[in-house]
């Protein structure tokens, strides 16, 4: 499994802000790129990291574990 540093960086900001849009702004990117990166990371790890809602994103148990390691 080869996961890039950038994927973890995107995850960190998305988890920190609990919002893909705010993470995109902090990373000088756009929301679709953040969403795509998170989906790829979830596929690589084989688990769901976020519960997505129209008000933001909440970490799952696996997401909280990963965030504590990062």
Give the fraction of residues assigned to helices.
Answer: 55-70%
- Which of globular, elongated, flat, extended, rod-shaped describes the shape? globular
What is the terminal-to-terminal distance?
A: 17 Å
Mean pLDDT: 95
How would you spell out the order of helices and strands? HHHEEH
Enumerate the strands of the largest sheet in spatial order, edge to edge or round the barrel: 1-2
Structural class: mainly alpha
Beta strand count: 2
Descriptors:
70 residues; mainly alpha; two-stranded antiparallel sheet; 4 helices; 2 strands; globular
Descriptive overview:
With 70 residues, the protein is mainly α. The protein is built from four helices and two strands. It has a two-stranded antiparallel ribbon. A hairpin with a 2-residue loop joins β1 and β2 (56-59). The two termini are 17 Å apart. The mean pLDDT is 95.
What is the secondary structure topology, with strand pairs?
Elements lengths: L4 H13 L2 H7 L4 H15 L4 E4 L2 E4 L1 H9 L1
Antiparallel strand pairs: 1-2
Summarize this structure briefly:
Strand 1 and strand 2 form a beta hairpin.
């Amino acid at each position: 499994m080869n996961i890039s540093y950038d994927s973890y960086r995107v995850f960190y900001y998305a988890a920190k802000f609990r919002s893909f849009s705010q993470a995109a702004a902090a990373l000088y990117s756009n929301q679709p790129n953040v969403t795509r990166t998170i989906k790829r990371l979830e596929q690589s790890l084989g688990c769901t990291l976020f519960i997505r809602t129209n008000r933001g994103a909440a970490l799952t148990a696996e997401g909280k574990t990963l965030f504590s390691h990062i």
